[in-house]
Structure formats: structure tokens, C-alpha cells
Write a structure and sequence with these properties.
Blueprint lengths: L1 H22 L1 E2 L5 E2 L7 H4 L38 H10 L2 H11 L2 H27 L5 H12 L4 H7 L3 H11 L10 E5 L5 H13 L4 E6 L10 H11 L6 E5 L27 H4 L8 E6 L5 H11 L3 E9 L8 H13 L3 E5 L4 E4 L5
Parallel strand pairs: 3-4, 3-6, 4-5, 6-7
Antiparallel strand pairs: 1-2, 7-9, 8-9
Amino acid sequence: MVARALAIGRERLDAFAHRVKRSETFSPTGEASLGSPCLAPEQLKCNLRTKLPVRCFTSPHLPATGQPAGRDDQFGVTSPWGASMVRRSLRTGSWRTRLRWVVRLLTPWGLEWWLHILSLRKLERARDEHQRKITPASDPQLDDAIRFLVARGLDEETVRFGSMPAISLTFMSRVVGPRLPRDRPVRALHVGNFVGVSLCYLTSLVRDQNPASVVLSVDPNTVHRGVASPQSHVLALLNHYGLLSNSLIIPGYTLEQSFGELGAPDESDLSRGLACVDVLGSLPALRLAPFDLVLLDGNHDRAYLEREFVALRQLVAGGSIVVFDDVVAWEWDGVREVFQRVLGEDHCTDLGRDGRLGILEVGTAQ
């Protein structure tokens, strides 16, 4: 009986080790690839009589406790029997609980559990190492820009939360930079400036391709995140980096006027929030050449953004690159849905996503 149990345990350990080895692969974004990423957590939890995914571990002998996952909760999937939970049970549990766990850890189930924990830690270390290789710890230019804006009296947390993080700016530079023309000035459009962090980064990026490159930006200069007249900070930041000659700013709305934090103007203040309207509809009359690069970070309403992209199509050509900010399903569903629709219906190519930005290349069919 004992020999049979050991043989069964050995077979299960060999099969589990094979699955771990086969699952240790990485995606281009640096996230561990562990089988099907679209399975729900409840689909991943199964007992030892079926396939045991690396991402989750449960026991057929123990009831679910609802215990919050600790550090052992890897890749967003709850592991109710993680190492932290077992250590807590052995340290603070009753003598019966401690004895029960000691016995379980000496069974084939316990050996497989240990392999599971070790595989998670190995994958975590490899994932973190991979992420460190592709992502800088910080961006000196971004840090300097934030220090400059804080010195002007802005709150650092407000600036950071209202601006693109260093990892997304680096991702954009890595994807967009090699695709921009170098034999002529780059023409770029930036929608939504706030205090100018992403605008300065984008302007510096295209200027590095060609010193005569120009970025046209559109922003109504209304109160945002409690910052009044953000355009004054934008101009100061552009001047700080010597980018004023590479930038043209239009105080306006891409389509019709939309009301921000202060709401619609009342009769006592009809000028509040006023700026040029239908900027995208007016630009074709200037007979400008198509934009090579567009960054959309303005109105996040789905209907507004859909019409904004329709108006944008007459300002870009095949091969133009469009960057969507906040393509985040749990926060900005409208932006994500418009991005997905554009990819499916407008002959565009997905160049990549980093968890916040979505970058596509416009197709030739109109």
C-alpha cells in the first residue's frame, strides 16, 4: 500500500514538473505566460485528480476558506493555500491544526504543494528580472520635468497622477521611434496637454528624429485636477527644454465644447471653459500634410472619442501612428472599446499595448 502511494506520488510530481517547465515562457510585455490567460480564476482551480495549473493550487481535502491571498498570489489569481497562510497556521494555529498541516506536508500532496510554491517563486524572479531588463527604473527627463513643475507650485502627486508614467513613455518611444521618418521633419498631433509632461516627451522624441519636426497640440486650457490655466505650465515646461520652436498650441476642443470639472458655464460667467471648437474639422482647410504621429489623451467619453477618430482619419494617411492613452478595461472601458473597434473595422494594425497605452498603425484603406 505504501509503495503504491509513493509510486502515485512520484508520477504526479513528474507530471507536475513537466507542466511547470512547459509553462515557463514570457510574452513580449514581460508577463509570465502560464497556459491560457483568459481563464477565470474559478476555472483555474481544480483538484489533484485533474490537471493542476501552475497559477493556482487547491487541495481536494481542504474546504475553501476565503482567506485573502498574500505574496503568493501570483499573476492576479488567488492561491488560498499559499506559503504565508501555511506559515501562519503553523505558528498561530491550535496544536490540532499544526499537527494536521505537518501530516499533510509529508504526503504526496504536500510534496506537490512545495513544488507549486517553488515554481511560483521561480517564475516571479524570472518575470521581475525580465521586466528590469526592458524597463528603466526611472526616466531622468520625466523626473526633471516633475521637479520643475513642483518648483512652480504644483502638487507632485497631482502632476504624477495626471501624467503618463515613465514606463508608458518609454514603451511609446521604443515602439514609435523606429517607425518615424528621418529624412524630413516629423508632423505630430497631441490632443490633451494637462501640464505638458507627455507633450514635452513627444516633442523631444520627434525632434530627435529631425530638428525641424513640429508638434501641433490641442487643449482647451480649462481647470483639470484642480490646476487652473494649465497651459501656462505647458509653455514654461516647453521653454525649459528649448522646445517652443517645435510646438504649436491651439487652445480649443477637437470637436464641440465639453465641460470639465467646473461644469457648464452659467449666466454670470459665460466665458468659463470657452475655447476654439471643431479644431479637427478646421485643420483640413489649411491643407496640411498628413500627420505622421497622433497621441489622443483628451475626452475619454466613448461617443466623443469615436467621432474624434472619424474626424482624425482625414488628417492621417497609411502608415501614420496613433497612440491611445488609458486603454484600461477596468478604468476607461470607452477608450478600450473604441481602440478595439478601430482595430477591427478601420484597417489598422496593433503595434502593441503596455497596460495603459494602445498603439496602432493606420492602414491604407479609407
